[in-house]
Amino acid sequence: MTKPINLDRRQLMLGAGLAATAFAARGATAQGEATEPDLTGVSILITGSSSGFGRLGAEHYARLGAKVFATMRNLPRPEADELTTLATEENLDITVLEIDVTSDEQVASGVAAALAANDGKLDVLINNAGIAYAGPIEVQDMAATQLIFDTNVYGPHRMARAVLPAMRAAGAGQIFNVSSQLGRLVIPGFGQYSPSKFALEAMSEQMAYETVAQGIEVTIIQPGGYPTEIWENQVALSKDLKARLPEELLAAYPTMTAGMGSGDGGGGTTDPMDIPRAIAEIIAMPAGTRPLRRAVHPVARPQEPINEVSAQQQLAMLGNSGYGPMIKAVLE
Asked: In the chain, what percentage of residues exceed pLDDT 70?
């Protein structure tokens, strides 16, 4: 480990060559009011762009000037056609690519196509694709468990490994992993969702420490409840899971299994655009100042105290060790 214990985060990242490629800071009007960030020239790849935060984000970032690679599974599909038509009508720089994040081959080919279309560079990766199941842990069979971890944890891992070589070569990059409030807290009867998001949180934080000196930042987005298609899809997935389980197992947890596979999915009446707006704001922040975690919800952000004490204890444990520079570079 090198000696520069006193380097702050900004200095570390500038030393890695990020200064030349830092994104524009958020603007302001003459009256001092915040304006929409300018993402002109920023290249962004998003997973899970067929609906929800991914679809809204693809449109939002492109309208702010970004070059967007919107990826989704199972092409051709109507959602891809709709997004392509919208891009043509509004003259937005959006390219739809096929990536199923559970497929090594599609991750490799999709990222390669994006890099080829942008001179081998990619500024931002947004790992947005995710799934959920309802029901207690015991009723989560191995098929459900493997699928949720393959999507919510191994998928972001595959994507990060695919983009990091190009980001390292550029000496700059930003990776967003969309987690959840439930990546810090647990609701009983919600299966492997929290375990998978807890794993994503830990993987993201570890990667943030390991890549900061190379000019690459990692931010974990922690949404609260929002009405997106993930919850409707959860109903369908949970219904399929319930149908293949023995009655005696379901009867062991009657209050937690009665509603599996039913309902409208929920998510409340909040505005899902909160997430793309928060991500765009962070992209436009000066390099070296972007947060490790951002809780997003207009009312409920119960994970924030956990985020704070976690950072304090991480610094207390390792801040004065040989790992100190990378820990402080991310957390301070």
From this structure: 89
